[in-house]
């Protein structure tokens, strides 16, 4: 079962920051998940629509420029990263899962990704884009047919994974509290990978192993790796 660092190794380092991302890389995780919000002029790697919880700033991210967002402390003297910085740090060493939050100007994101790929800073195989907004995913897949799409849900849809197959998704990302055998079986018949979030406790990791899913998002990748090694 694959281990993805959720917001980087965010259990031990400030979430979605350089230190959390570098710590995850150091552990040799199978992937790193980060969250993306739009700013006035681009994108910022931050989970919330507001600066307040994870930085010493106040205000809405989409009402500020990236430079304004980066004036604030996102933990231990670090700035909120830009997406380009993250591509540079990760440097194709592992899969990067960009989760689109309140992200608009997707055409800008497509251009940025294409530039990174052309410049050799990002390998296509190492990118997975996910979102709870399936309309955005559909549009992205039309623009970048090669891109791996991760369809996020916080629940089990009536048609199980039918929506994800329609999106031509690579994976379904589902809340660990809702996942069940029927859902996993349905995903397998549609050739979709199943990843669950956010799985930190050993009992929960055991449950995910029993379900036979493909991977977990965890805030404590080091603990998850050690636990899985003992299995
Ligand atoms: O991408 C999985 C998970 O991160 C989705 O929820 O709120 O932690 O971004 P959230
Ligand atoms: Mg996320």
UniProtKB/TrEMBL annotation:
SUPFAM superfamilies noted in UniProt: PLC-like phosphodiesterases
Name of a matching Pfam family: GDPD
GP-PDE domain location: 1-228
PROSITE patterns reported in the protein's UniProt record: GP_PDE (PS51704)
Species of the source: Pseudoalteromonas spongiae
InterPro entries according to UniProt: GP_PDE_dom, PLC-like_Pdiesterase_TIM-brl
Name of this chain's protein: Glycerophosphodiester phosphodiesterase family protein
Matches recorded under PANTHER family: GLYCEROPHOSPHODIESTER PHOSPHODIESTERASE, CYTOPLASMIC, GLYCEROPHOSPHORYL DIESTER PHOSPHODIESTERASE
